[in-house]
Amino acid sequence: LAGRRVVPPRLPRVPSADTVVIVGEAPGETEERQATPFVGDSGIELHAGTDAVGLAWSGLHLTNTILCRPPNNKLDVYLRGLNGPSPVTCCAPRLERELRPYRKIITVGATSLQALTGTRSTITAVRGSAMELDGKKLLPTIHPAFVLRQPRWRRWFRFDLARALRWFAGNLDWAPPKIHRQPSPEQLRVFLARPSKVWAWDLETEWRGALDARIYCCGIGTADGSRVAMVHLLSIDGQTLLYKRSDLGEIHRILAEFWQSPTWVKLGQNSIAFDAATVRARWAP
Ligand code: URA
How far is the CA of 78 from the centre of ligand 1 (A)? Predict the structure, then answer.
């Protein structure tokens, strides 16, 4: 690409280690004309996406894997090295140097992710994954040009941008819930009395018809993932009841109330099929 116009990175107003860098593929025609990255249609889509998640455009460092537009946008020809060495390889030391001061990177499209990590995975398989690269935080997403061609991907594009912000802010960490194993009837009532927007639930049953399958265990968890109750009803020997008979009736009454009352908004694993039929047969006729 020697001799073609270089489209330099667009620097943020106040660069810092906390600046978010967005790495694209290569400048398009509009970018080449204006010598500024992301000012054409893809840039407008990207800008709308960053606005939607609350990332100020002026605070971003915008750059590309390669800084020159390949003739007719035929980058793939060059990537395959058909016209000599790949411009991605030529530009790699520059990109590496450019990213050195930063630690928060969003790559858009496959080319930039591949240039930085060497991955061969498709972008749709890895988009949205929180990654670490030489002590930097990296989150890949799809290219805004792809969003323009396939608008149904827009929500996932923006979802990834928002997720990148959570990753950069250290808010993606998952803490294991506090597990209340085998709560007494009193403890189960207390567990269910503390509010949660929705309640996740799942059953483990024996493998037979849903209407008469015996239930080994029932798990209920809160929406924020902080609390889980594990109600073990039946041992894996299929015989031994794990609650005292004196408590069992009360446990069943509480569970019946849980499933019958709209007070608890429920979200179940597999809950439109087998487990829903089992629950209905047992607790919520
Ligand atoms: N697409 C890119 O990947 N980069 C730009 O700068 C513009 C469009």
Answer: 16
